[in-house]
Design brief:
This protein has 674 residues and is of the alpha+beta class. A six-stranded mixed beta sheet has the order 1-5-6-7-11-8. A three-stranded antiparallel beta sheet has the order 2-4-3. The longest helix has 36 residues. The protein is globular, with a radius of gyration of 25 Å. It starts with a strand and ends in a 6-residue tail after the last helix.
């Protein structure tokens, strides 16, 4: 089923992104005043019930969430600095208001009264009961049991933390670095890397400008034969945003103070209480076990990489001086190319963006029983953005919208992510509000002679991020706070990670991997080589993930308020990732956005959730068929639809028919289970 084209207005309300700074400020003022009015009314209830206390508070979340997400989203994508500034300020103000709201004793008193009223609680359905349980727990975790002076200190800290996190993210988005190189210094890069690239005259020599955005830096780190070029490029990346180091340092200190005010030893203890892992001990045991297993693979991989670099040094008449952080991508890619005859520049000719996007959307349409309709001449925030309607496969029921903003530009969010611009929920009149999601990425742009061509890993990223989009679109919950990806933090990646597997299935690759000139499907023999190379370097690659998770725990599971974030990052990276750091001063943690973007004490979740994604894929889809629509609809119903309206473990057990285990995960990364 091909994604359709349409110019008809959608059944759902299309959002307005054409907002100026003044309008963003007016919306912010209104959201705050309306929210305060609702809370004031609720707090005066003399006979608190679910209907007159909890419902108004949750309805406020429902109705105002889309405006909140919309105006705060614009800081990541708008080309207008004034709009970005207004969006950033709006987020700071709204977050400050939410922190104040979460610490209102009078509102908590009536919520608590309902929570303690057995007759009220007994009347509630499962999602309503979960709503008040989570609401009451949230108030307690926000310090409502503390003395007044401690509550005031807690509120002050939380507001400041929100400001620090917003500033950190803004600095990363707008703090791109760059280097300039001659063509000779960029030896190893293919011709289309230079096509349309800006140049700059430096000391009378014309040089190419290479930025730290993904489509620039990744090819250089993978392909540039000149070691000095790779070192300079990585140095440019890892010396960006020095102003972020003190922001993160202060945030870590304040997070610990918050946790200890609330009676926890560490920030990680506080954060993990709501996760599937439950406690830092489980996370540390998971990371330690995984590291030990991966070290066995990495020992072999290091020897292969070391042999290649020694040979290069010998050929150049230079002394071998070790393996460094700028060698990782280059020599890992060389091993893959030589052992499996995989050349990324050859492979990407079979992954034109337009066809890949079309093919992946078709796979998801079939799998999930949906129909995607591209809207022409849509009102969007940039001409490159695309809007899609989502309908049930029979075309009779509208389901939602999603936006795709896939190419890099100045001052835009630097990586790949999905924003749930509007959650779905049930309105007061019983009708359903349709969800809206936006995917933002930085894939290679088309050139004058070629369309946008993706690496295979880019195609896997597209599968993953569109998985988050579909999690939002396919979720159906009564309350916005449970919609879509609002699950436990160490489960949220699992549904999208599971969908990455379609990028490795030969039958599925044939559907969207076609040569950009001839239109012929990717040769079966090339697919075979790609699949064979899937776990090449799995030890070192996954150790990098373990490093990020262990660094996160090192700064968030400690009682030392002055733990050195910069020092810990460099020390643990060298110890765990097995490559030496630059002898020059660098601060790679300054752009590690996860630490200031909601993944604090949660980065382990990327690996933790792979346990569940591998189990789901192997136990159901491999067994029953990746094109089995019954399995796909089971996945939609049991994993995507509930969102966070029930525990993730319940959703997993319903889909798997048993409790999950790690056997498939260990096999998926090249390890055998014990």
């Amino acid at each position: 089923m091909t994604a359709q084209m349409s110019t008809a207005p959608a059944k759902g309300t299309v959002l307005n992104f054409n907002l100026g700074p003044e309008e963003i400020t007016r919306i912010t003022d209104r959201l705050i005043s309306n929210g305060k009015a609702i809370q004031d009314r609720v707090a005066t209830q003399s006979n608190p019930t679910f209907a007159n206390v909890v419902v108004p508070l949750a309805m406020r979340e429902n109705e105002q969430s889309s405006e909140y997400y919309l105006i705060t989203f614009l800081q990541n994508v708008s080309i207008d600095k004034d709009v970005r500034d207004a969006s950033t300020m709006a987020e700071e103000r709204l977050n400050a208001f939410e922190i104040e709201s979460s610490m209102r004793e009078d509102v908590y008193a009536v919520v608590r009264a309902v929570f303690n009223n057995a007759s009220e609680m007994d009347k509630l359905g499962a999602e309503d009961r979960r709503l008040i349980e989570k609401m009451e727990l949230s108030y307690r975790r926000n310090g409502l049991a503390l003395s007044k002076d401690k509550r005031e200190r807690l509120g002050s800290i939380k507001k400041h933390l929100s400001e620090l996190e917003t500033r950190f993210s803004r600095n990363v988005n707008e703090g791109d670095g760059f280097e300039t190189f001659t063509r000779e210094e960029l030896d190893g890069l293919v011709d289309d890397f230079f096509e349309g690239r800006e140049t700059k005259v430096v000391d009378g020599v014309e040089k190419y400008i290479v930025t730290t955005k993904y489509p620039d830096i990744v090819p250089v780190m993978m392909k540039a034969t000149n070691e000095t070029t790779r070192r300079r490029m990585l140095f440019a990346e890892e010396t960006r945003c020095p102003e972020n180091i003190p922001l993160l340092q202060e945030a870590v200190k304040l997070r610990l103070e918050v946790a200890q005010l609330l009676g926890y030893r560490t920030h990680a203890e506080y954060k993990l209480e709501l996760s599937m892992a439950k406690a830092p001990g489980a996370v540390l045991a998971f990371e330690k076990d995984l590291r030990q297993r991966l070290d066995v693979l990495a020992d072999k991989e290091i020897k292969e990489i070391e042999a290649l670099k020694r040979a290069d040094k010998k050929a150049a008449g230079e002394k071998y001086d070790g393996l460094f952080s700028w060698d990782f991508r280059y020599y890992s890619n060389m091993v893959k190319e030589r052992k499996h005859n995989i050349n990324d520049d050859e492979v990407k000719e079979y992954f034109p963006m337009k066809e890949v996007t079309r093919g992946i959307l078709e796979i998801y349409q079939t799998m999930l029983g949906l129909r995607f309709v591209k809207v022409e001449d849509a009102a969007v925030w940039h001409p490159e953005v695309e809007l899609y309607e989502v309908w049930e496969a029979d075309g009779k029921k509208f389901t939602g919208h999603f936006y795709l903003d896939l190419f890099p530009r100045a001052d835009k969010y630097n990586h790949a992510a999905v924003w749930p611009i509007r959650p779905g929920f049930v309105r007061a009149d019983g009708t359903h509000e349709f969800p809206v999601a936006a995917m933002v990425a930085n894939f290679p742009k088309p050139t004058a002679s070629k369309p946008a061509l993706l690496k295979h890993s880019d195609a896997v990223t597209l599968l993953h991020e569109l998985g988050h989009v579909l999690h939002s679109i396919c979720s159906t919950t009564k309350w916005a706070r449970f919609h879509g990806t609002a699950t436990e933090g160490d489960f949220v990646e699992s549904p999208s990670q599971m969908l990455e597997n379609w990028g490795w299935e030969p039958s599925e690759l044939q559907k969207f991997a076609v040569h950009y000139k001839t239109g012929k499907p990717i040769p079966a023999e090339l697919v075979k080589r790609l699949v064979a190379a899937k776990n090449e370097g799995a030890g070192l690659f996954n150790l990098r993930q373990v490093f990020f998770g262990m660094f996160d725990m090192s700064i968030h599971h400690t009682e030392d308020p002055n733990v050195d974030v910069k020092k810990n990052f460099l020390k643990l990276r060298q110890e765990i990732s097995r490559f030496e750091n630059d002898s020059n001063d660098t601060w790679g943690t300054s752009t590690f956005g996860h630490m200031m973007g909601g993944y604090d004490a949660g980065y382990y979740g990327y690996m933790w959730s792979l346990v569940f994604s591998a189990d789901m894929f192997e136990s159901r889809f491999i067994k029953e068929g990746v094109e089995n629509t019954t399995t796909g609809m089971d996945y939609r119903r049991e994993i995507l639809l509930p969102g966070g309206s029930r525990d993730a473990m319940i959703s997993l057990e319903h889909f798997l028919g048993r409790k999950p285990n790690n056997k498939a995960f260990l096999r998926s990364i090249g390890l055998e289970s014990r």
